[in-house]
């Protein structure tokens, strides 16, 4: 069979830049240097002034482990919709206590702003999104605009501020997450994150709680949480939503019926559409 076809161009091509070093931090026992990595799904170069909004993705793992490449196949949906995706590694709690993880996240944002032109990114349209521990990161970024104490390292002449936060079943208050979870299997992750049990370290707990920082610079939030989440209680997500609303911050809350922690439901087209619509309305 021989055919001649005329193929219309209906979507962009995408490149993957994987494992780019965005910062260097102390390594083994403070005696070496560790490279912090991110990966970027970006669009084919157009050789003009075209730029795209950027979604920073932070994976989960209980602050014990994170693979910044594991969800790239799923995140392609957002790249196809016209976004650049930056998936970021951050130090786990075996290497640094909080706020080291937030410092890493802000360093990644500053690095991308410095290199925005190279990756065709609009530095004024920055979204932060993540799951579980990464959802906590997304929330913390959404409430700490202009909090310079968390900006540590290089590229300090660039802002780490964001425009929208989208936490998926993200931890809010470490103490209430520990006390409210169905299982006790993950209680240790909060001690590792804070460097102390949240019950006996209220100042450390408050420092890692996004509710502490909500102010007039807090960005719009889209919160996703399953009603069968056995690790992060949905009540914490609802408390975040209600506190944002009480402070006149734009926020939407979606309760996913029957969804557990890290559930496949979150990667369905319906959720992608909800997120894209929220971004269209608020970015």
Q: What is the CATH class?
A: Alpha Beta
Which parts are unreliable, with pLDDT below 50 for 5 consecutive residues or more?
A: none
Structural class: alpha/beta
| Structure summary, number of beta strands | 8
Task: Count the DSSP helices.
Answer: 8
- CATH fold description: Rossmann fold
Radius of gyration: 19 Å
> What is the count of distinct domains?
1
Taken as a percent bin, the fraction of beta residues is 15-25%
Order of helices and strands: EEEHEHEHEHHHEHEH
Give the overall form. globular
Distance between the termini: 49 Å
What profile does the largest beta sheet have? 8 strands, mixed
- Strands of the widest sheet, in order across it, are 1-2-4-3-5-6-7-8
For CATH, the homologous superfamily is named as Alpha/Beta hydrolase fold, catalytic domain
CATH hierarchy: architecture? 3-Layer(aba) Sandwich
Percent of residues in helices:
25-40%
Mean pLDDT: 95
Structural summary, described in words:
The structure is a single chain. The protein is an alpha/beta fold. The protein has a single domain, classed as 3-Layer(aba) Sandwich (Rossmann fold). Helix content is 29%, strand content 23%. The protein is built from 8 helices and 8 strands. It has helices at 72-80, 100-114, 133-143, 174-180, 188-194, 202-207, 234-246, 269-282; strands spanning 14-26, 33-43, 52-58, 84-88, 121-131, 164-168, 221-226, 251-256. It is globular. The termini are far apart.
């Amino acid at each position: 069979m021989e055919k001649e076809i005329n193929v219309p161009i209906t979507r962009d091509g995408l490149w993957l830049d994987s494992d780019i070093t965005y910062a260097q931090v102390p390594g083994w026992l403070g005696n070496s240097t560790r490279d912090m990595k991110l990966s970027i799904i970006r669009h084919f170069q157009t050789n003009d002034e075209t730029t795209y909004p950027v979604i920073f993705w932070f994976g989960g793992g209980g602050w014990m482990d994170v693979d910044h490449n594991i969800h790239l196949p799923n995140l392609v949906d957002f790249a196809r919709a016209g976004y650049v995706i930056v998936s970021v590694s951050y130090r786990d709690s075996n290497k640094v206590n909080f706020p080291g993880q937030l410092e890493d996240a802000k360093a990644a944002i500053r690095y991308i702003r410095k290199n925005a032109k190279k990756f065709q990114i609009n530095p004024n349209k920055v979204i932060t999104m993540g799951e579980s521990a990464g959802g906590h990161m997304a929330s913390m970024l959404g409430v700490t605009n202009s909090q310079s104490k968390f900006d540590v390292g290089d590229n300090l002449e660039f802002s780490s501020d964001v425009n929208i936060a989208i936490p998926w079943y993200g931890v809010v208050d470490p103490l209430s997450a520990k006390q409210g979870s169905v299982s006790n299997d993950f209680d240790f992750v909060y001690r590792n994150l804070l460097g102390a049990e949240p019950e006996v370290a209220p100042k450390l707990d408050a420092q890692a709680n996004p509710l502490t920082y909500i102010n007039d610079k807090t960005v719009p939030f889209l919160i996703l949480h399953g009603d069968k989440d056995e690790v992060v209680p949905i009540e914490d997500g609802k408390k975040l939503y209600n506190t944002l609303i009480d402070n006149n911050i734009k926020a939407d809350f979606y309760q996913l019926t029957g969804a557990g922690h890290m559930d496949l439901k979150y990667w369905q087209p319906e959720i992608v559409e909800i997120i894209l619509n929220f971004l269209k309305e608020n970015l």
